[in-house]
């Protein structure tokens, strides 16, 4: 009987291999309507596939007609699917969107960036497409060479994209930025003890009073990029900094950003060495916690982007969603719920824009977020934390 | 001649039916267990990135094994994992075992409340329990340590970021499983053996060690195996307490390799998983050695019996003291901290200033979800179907293994147990790849979660049913067969009623675990099949401790109301 089961196991494996090789793709969604000439790509990381279909609106349409046409098509589609790690969008932002388009059903799937990319790529390999819009970090540029993103003209983002901040490639738009760096407990750390420079962070006086996030594996890369400048990477400077921080302050290793920031506010540590601006802002506003970013000369940051999938099952509804997210009202609400700084100049009243007005942020160029650089950074981080 | 021929035909028919049952269980298991396992092993030898976990024969490398096992830290991590798992298992045994014994076999006065008490650690999310202990025992802000220093002691009483506290917290989390499994075994015990020993003049301590313990040995070994592997795979305590105490374990490292770094190091994570699976297979080997002569543990026979209640006498005070200790220290303290945290926008130590900030905002946040009803429906459907299917399959499997004794059934048992050792996130990815490999209507719906959950939770079910069935003598079903009952009639009218304690206890446990299981849902759920565990993760991310604490308090309150209304007596009766 054991032999029977072993044979069955082998047969099953062979069947799965065969099915993997010749699995019938799921039916393709209908092509996007009203294609227009694609905008030239300037993505430094990847050449877009020549087969990528643009989903922009004919520029000859008056805006009112465009909106009416897209809404009519979206009504037929009936729903739009958004994947994002920013779950907080669901109750607040999405309620506003629903107010505007009550006839459109909005479905969300919340997952980590890794899970989103893994699922998307795996599904696309067998021709399955279940998502319309993704809202996540700039690692989505990895989806361009895989021919998964659609080009779009991002009409509402034109006003800031022209300043070189918005991502003019057409495959995605940068709409908010978050920055990373030290956060301190403003009750425990006062006056002259507040760090003024990055060198102050590695002072041995912090020994036993700091924490470092396990999942902050991009930290070495971000500091290398900021200190290298002009697209260069000062790896050695960054590595040396982190080694000294680890040696001098003996930080507690923690997981994530949210809970460590809240424990920082409760007094568990004095300094959380690699916090996120969005989490800090939410801890200040929602939680009323005494946490703040110190007045360092600058902080490294990354942009968060929105993308429409090339084979989005509901392309017109997707346009409505991204147009709303990048509108003045949508930008402001979205920036506030995630706690990031909006790039939309008309949303300058967003909380993070006001709260972090004095902080200078170096936005890391997306081409530096290559797989090779991120792996180098993650490997160093793992070794630093003794994993 | 013709009678012998007919008998031979009947035996052949019976054998054929048994083989048929064997294959009906075996083949889906082969498909659903071997394929993910094969994917895991194969891909541990590949250098892969996003969307490349597959049955493919390219990108081969030994780098993952060299990186993992040439690193001395890996061996330290292995030591940490084993020490953590064994310590947690011991704590869970002491807490859950003693509570089960007091509830099932003694006249302890609080035994009726024990069920409600023991279900509380089960319904509180593990990450919340771990954080609660940080807030109690952190050397900087821990309330217990602050109180300790306030009464004049210089150094903290306990350090939350130490191995003994990790054992304690994980032990409390695991104690309900010990309680339910051993409770079912105690309840099924025929007191005749104990009474015989007492009549022969054996003291109570000798009766306990030489009779009681030996009779429930399958349950003890089954629980030990489950607890050991569960602690090896545990994430919350190692991540929230272990990391800060420099105690890195395999499970945390696998999670880090696969989900917390970008791009993920799938190959490395899979390689580490191989070690976990090897440890589990070793544990399973020990288990199978212990129970290989199952008939020795059969105490439920055709003869009627009623479990004997032991009068505690002067030991009653000690028993009550233990129950109060468990209620106050293991449950009460963390629940109180969580209650306080649930009333604040963000946790701060209790003070008059913080009292003014108390509100119910976190509670409204829990209910203020647009898709709450849909999510609860999905969760109820998922947990209900999974718990029924798991216990049915588990009982069938146990029957095949211990009563039919078909050759190869040990292999089937190992096969059914292995998913327990595969890290959930790996199982999630494997199922995604598997169900994307061929056209099917299941992918993207709640049913793919149902199938995946059945496979990963079958090991829980089989430990319950194995332990139960080993106590049931074959004469029960033989009597049915002699009376002319069919295969399924014997199964449903003889085996199922006798196994009710194990089936209901196991089913309840699987139901609650299904509600909380996150890692698989995180990969396999879709916008249409969101379940409560994903919601818990969302609350944790966006609301931090407060919102999740509010959810836990609501669940605890529900359970307490049930207790007051007498519902738990009903649960107790069902389980019993």
Task: Explain this structure.
The complex is a heterodimer of chains A (387) and B (576). Chain A has 387 residues and is of the alpha/beta class. Chain A has 2 domains: 48-176 and 304-355, D-Maltodextrin-Binding Protein, domain 2 (3-Layer(aba) Sandwich), CATH 3.40.190; 177-302 and 359-384, Periplasmic binding protein-like II (D-Maltodextrin-Binding Protein, domain 2, 3-Layer(aba) Sandwich). Chain A contains 14 helices and 11 strands. Chain A is globular and about 65 Å long. With 576 residues, chain B is an all-alpha fold. Chain B has one domain (17-575): Orthogonal Bundle (MetI-like fold), CATH 1.10.3720.10. Chain B is built from 26 helices and no strands. In chain B, helix 5 (126-137) crosses helix 14, helix 17 (372-404) runs parallel beside helix 20 and helix 21 packs antiparallel against helix 22 (487-498). The longest helix of chain B has 42 residues, at 2-43. The radius of gyration of chain B is 25 Å and the shape is globular. The two termini of chain B are 49 Å apart. The chains are: A alpha/beta (387), B mainly alpha (576). Chains A and B meet through helix 1, strand 1, helix 3, strand 2 and helix 4 of A and helix 1, helix 5, helix 12, helix 18 and helix 19 of B.
Topology of helices and strands:
The complex is a heterodimer of chains A (387) and B (576).
Chain A: H1 2-22, H2 63-77, E1 79-84, H3 89-100, E2 105-110, H4 113-125, E3 133-137, H5 158-161, E4 172-185, H6 198-201, E5 210-213, H7 219-228, H8 235-249, E6 252-254, H9 258-266, E7 271-276, H10 277-285, E8 291-292, E9 299-308, H11 315-325, H12 328-338, E10 341-342, H13 351-355, E11 361-363, H14 371-384
Parallel strand pairs in A: 1-2, 1-3, 5-6, 5-7, 9-11
Antiparallel strand pairs in A: 3-9, 4-7, 4-8, 4-9, 4-10
Helix pairs in contact in A: 2-11, 3-12, 7-8
Chain B: H1 2-43, H2 63-69, H3 72-105, H4 111-123, H5 126-137, H6 143-150, H7 163-187, H8 192-199, H9 204-215, H10 217-233, H11 236-242, H12 250-260, H13 266-290, H14 316-342, H15 352-355, H16 361-367, H17 372-404, H18 409-417, H19 424-436, H20 446-470, H21 475-482, H22 487-498, H23 500-516, H24 519-524, H25 532-564, H26 567-575
Helix pairs in contact in B: 1-17, 1-18, 1-19, 2-13, 3-4, 3-7, 3-10, 4-7, 4-25, 4-26, 5-7, 5-11, 5-14, 7-10, 7-11, 7-23, 8-9, 10-13, 10-20, 12-13, 14-25, 16-25, 17-18, 17-20, 17-23, 20-23, 21-22
């Amino acid at each position: 009987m054991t032999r029977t089961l072993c044979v069955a196991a082998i047969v099953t494996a062979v069947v799965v291999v065969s099915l993997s090789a010749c699995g019938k793709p799921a039916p393709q969604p209908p092509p996007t309507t009203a294609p227009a000439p694609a905008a030239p790509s300037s993505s430094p990381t990847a050449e877009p596939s020549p087969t990528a279909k643009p989903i922009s609106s004919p520029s000859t349409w008056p805006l009112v007609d465009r909106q009416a046409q897209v809404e009519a098509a979206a009504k037929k589609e009936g729903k739009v699917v958004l994947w994002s790690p920013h779950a907080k969008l669901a109750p607040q932002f999405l309620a506003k969107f629903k107010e505007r388009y009550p006839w459109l059903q909005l479905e969300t799937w919340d997952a980590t960036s890794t899970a989103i990319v893994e699922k998307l790529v795996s599904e696309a390999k067998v021709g399955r497409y279940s998502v319309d819009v993704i809202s996540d970090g700039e690692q989505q540029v990895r989806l361009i060479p895989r021919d998964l993103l659609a080009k779009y003209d991002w009409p509402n983002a034109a006003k800031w994209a022209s300043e070189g901040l918005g991502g003019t490639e057409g495959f995605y738009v940068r709409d908010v930025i978050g920055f990373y760096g030290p956060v301190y407990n403003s009750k425990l750390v006062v006056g002259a003890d507040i760090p003024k420079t990055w060198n102050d962070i590695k002072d041995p006086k912090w020994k036993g009073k700091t924490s470092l996030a396990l999942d902050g594996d991009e930290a070495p890369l971000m500091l290398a990029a900021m200190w290298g400048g002009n697209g260069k990477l000062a790896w050695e400077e960054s590595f040396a900094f982190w080694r000294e921080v680890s040696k001098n302050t003996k930080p507690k290793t923690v997981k994530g950003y949210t809970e460590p920031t809240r424990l920082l506010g409760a007094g568990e540590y004095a300094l959380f060495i690699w916090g996120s601006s969005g989490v800090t802002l939410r801890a200040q506003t929602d939680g009323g916690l005494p946490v703040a970013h110190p007045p360092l000369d600058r902080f490294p940051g990354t942009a968060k982007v929105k993308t429409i999938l090339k084979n989005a099952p509901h392309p017109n509804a997707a346009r409505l969603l991204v147009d709303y997210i990048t509108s003045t009202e949508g930008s402001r609400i979205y920036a506030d719920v995630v706690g990031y700084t909006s790039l939309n100049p008309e949303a300058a009243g967003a909380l993070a824009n006001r709260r972090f007005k004095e902080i200078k942020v170096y936005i890391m160029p997306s081409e530096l977020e290559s797989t090779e650089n991120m792996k180098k950074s993650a490997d160093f981080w793992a070794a630093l934390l003794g994993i | 001649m013709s009678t012998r021929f007919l008998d031979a035909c009947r035996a052949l028919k019976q054998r054929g039916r048994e083989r048929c049952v064997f294959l009906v269980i075996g083949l889906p298991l082969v498909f659903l267990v071997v394929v993910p396992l094969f994917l895991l092993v194969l891909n541990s030898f590949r250098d892969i990135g996003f969307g490349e976990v597959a049955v493919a024969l390219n990108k081969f490398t030994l780098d993952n094994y060299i990186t993992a096992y040439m690193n001395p830290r890996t061996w330290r991590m292995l030591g940490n994992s084993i020490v953590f798992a064994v310590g947690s298992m011991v704590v869970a045994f002491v807490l859950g075992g003693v509570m089960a014994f007091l509830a099932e076999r003694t006249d302890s006065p609080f035994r009726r409340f024990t069920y409600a008490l023991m279900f509380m650690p089960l319904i509180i999310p593990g990450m919340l329990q771990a954080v609660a202990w940080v807030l109690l025992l952190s050397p900087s802000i821990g309330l217990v340590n602050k109180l300790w220093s306030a009464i004049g002691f210089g150094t903290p009483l306990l350090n939350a970021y130490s191995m003994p506290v990790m054992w304690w917290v994980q032990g409390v989390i695991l104690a309900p499983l010990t309680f339910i499994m051993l409770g079912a075994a105690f309840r099924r015990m025929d007191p005749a053996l104990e009474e015989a020993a007492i009549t022969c003049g054996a003291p109570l301590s000798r009766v306990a060690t030489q009779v009681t313990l030996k009779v429930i040995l399958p349950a003890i070994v089954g629980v030990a195996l489950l607890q050991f592997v569960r602690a090896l795979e545990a994430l919350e305590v190692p991540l929230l307490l272990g990391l800060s105490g420099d105690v890195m374990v395999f499970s945390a490292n696998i999670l880090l390799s696969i989900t917390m770094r970008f791009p993920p190091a799938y190959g490395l994570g899979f390689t580490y998983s191989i070690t976990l699976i090897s440890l589990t297979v070793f544990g399973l080997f020990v288990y199978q050695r212990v129970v290989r002569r199952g008939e020795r543990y059969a105490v439920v026979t055709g003869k009627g019996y009623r479990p004997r209640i032991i009068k505690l006498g002067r030991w009653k005070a000690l028993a009550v003291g233990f129950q109060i200790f468990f209620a106050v220290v293991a449950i009460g303290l963390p629940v109180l901290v969580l209650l306080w945290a649930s009333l604040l926008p963000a946790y701060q130590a209790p003070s008059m200033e913080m009292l003014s900030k108390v509100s119910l905002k976190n509670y409204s946040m829990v209910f203020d979800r647009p898709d709450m009803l849909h999510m609860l429906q999905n969760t109820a459907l998922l947990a209900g179907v999974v718990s029924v299917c798991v216990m049915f399959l588990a009982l069938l499997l146990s029957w095949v293994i211990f009563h039919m004794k078909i050759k190869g059934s040990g292999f089937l048992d190992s096969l059914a147990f292995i998913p327990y050792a595969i890290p959930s996130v790996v199982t999630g990815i494997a199922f995604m790849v598997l169900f994307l490999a061929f056209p099917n209507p299941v992918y993207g719906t709640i049913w793919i979660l149902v199938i995946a959950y059945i496979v990963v939770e079958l090991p829980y079910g089989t430990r319950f049913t194995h332990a139960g069935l080993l106590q049931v003598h074959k004469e029960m079903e033989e009597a049915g067969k002699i009376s002319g009952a069919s295969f399924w009639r014997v199964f449903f009218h003889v085996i199922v009623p006798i196994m009710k304690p194990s089936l209901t206890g196991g089913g309840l446990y699987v139901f609650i675990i299904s509600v909380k299981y996150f890692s698989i849902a995180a990969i396999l759920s879709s916008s249409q099949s969101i379940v409560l565990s994903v919601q818990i993760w969302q609350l944790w991310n966006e609301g931090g401790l407060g919102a999740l604490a509010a959810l836990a308090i609501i669940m605890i309150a529900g359970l307490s109301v049930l207790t007051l209304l007498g519902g738990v007596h009903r649960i107790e009766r069902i389980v019993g």
